Amino acid sequence: QVEVVESGGGSVQAGGSLRLSCTASSYAYGRNYMAWFRQAPGKEREGVAAIYLAGRKSYYANSVTGRFTISQDNDKNTIYLQMNSLKPEDTAMYYCAADLVWGVWQNRDGYNYWGQGTQVTVSS
Predict the structure, then answer these.
(1) Contact, 20 vs 118, CB < 8 A?
(2) Would you give per-residue pLDDT tens digits along the chain (124 residues)?
(3) Nearest to 21 by CA among 76, 69, 78, 73
(4) Would you give the DSSP letter of residue 27?
């Protein structure tokens, strides 16, 4: 059983937009945090945005604040990442994480479930 599945990645010109979707099983979706991480080749996986599902509170990395928006649809067990004003440095594999059980939202070791990733490539 696949617990988390991402979609929506692709190639876009700088300044363009993409919307990523992450659908999780009911168990993985839960009532706590879900998040988007990204990883470029040779770099560590870093937190991009997170959402506290029960309270609909969102958190963002400084690098994406004002450009990215995370949202949720509880009926679909889905979170989204609307990415606007994309920059080449946003190029990475984007991963959805679910069920934060310990630590701050940026801690990749705190999540129980991970998707396979969806590639985002931003060209200039």
Answers:
(1) yes
(2) 678 999 999 999 999 999 999 999 988 887 789 999 999 999 999 999 999 998 889 999 999 999 999 999 999 999 999 999 999 999 999 999 999 998 899 999 999 999 999 999 999 9
(3) 78
(4) H
